[in-house]
Design brief:
This protein is α+β, with helices and mostly antiparallel strands. Helix content is 42%, strand content 23%. It has four helices and six strands.
């Protein structure tokens, strides 16, 4: 009989563990929609809607950031595109090729760090008295023989495109006298063309 007493205490321990394990198994099972009560359906629908709304907002935000980056880097009215176009005009100017030498490099504001490669191109958009937008930009050019500071002004026309008013490079004095070489000059920039009137 002494052997039966420990057996019954063992059964009572295993019996108390079963309901706990069964409760854990039940809590991890998902109920079907038809088995949910009305308050549970409301909570479940709200959670699902919130999750989808957060995901949709994230997708929209990532899309907007992607669009902004692509339009800034590759758009025809972006500072990056305008800088590249102006630098090409400077490189193809014969007078500047004689003064600067070839190849000509262009870069933004000087930096105290020689390791810093990306230098900010100084530009700003201002409005004139007539409400027209003017883009002002300054960057630096350098060749093997000399260096200079390029300045440009562009005016937004009626079609929303930028037109050069001027693009020139100031070459500092030194061995040669200081000079200003115009690459582009258009006194009618921003004015409506004859066919637009």
């Amino acid at each position: 009989m002494a052997t039966e007493a420990p057996k019954s205490s063992h059964n009572s321990n295993s019996g108390s563990q079963r309901p706990h394990g069964a409760a854990l198994a039940q809590s991890t099972e998902r109920k079907q929609w038809k088995d949910l009560t009305t308050p549970e359906k409301v909570v479940t629908a709200t959670k699902t809607t919130t999750n989808y709304a957060v995901i949709a907002a994230g997708v929209v935000l990532v899309g907007a950031i992607g669009y902004a980056i692509v339009s800034e880097l590759f758009g025809s009215n972006s500072d990056t595109h305008i800088f590249g176009d102006a630098l090409e005009k400077v490189r193809h100017n014969e007078k500047l090729a004689d003064v600067l030498g070839a190849p000509v490099k262009g870069y933004g504001e000087p930096s105290s760090s020689k390791r810093r490669r990306n230098r900010r191109i100084h530009s700003q958009v201002v409005l004139d008295a007539e409400g027209k937008e003017h883009l002002l930009m300054r960057f630096y050019v350098e060749g093997p023989d000399n260096e200079g500071t390029a300045h440009l002004e562009m005016i937004k026309n009626s079609r929303g495109d930028w037109e050069y008013k001027y693009l020139f490079v100031d070459i500092p004095g030194g061995v040669r006298p200081a000079q200003r070489i115009f690459v582009e000059y258009n006194k009618n920039a921003g004015q409506p063309a004859i066919e637009d009137k």
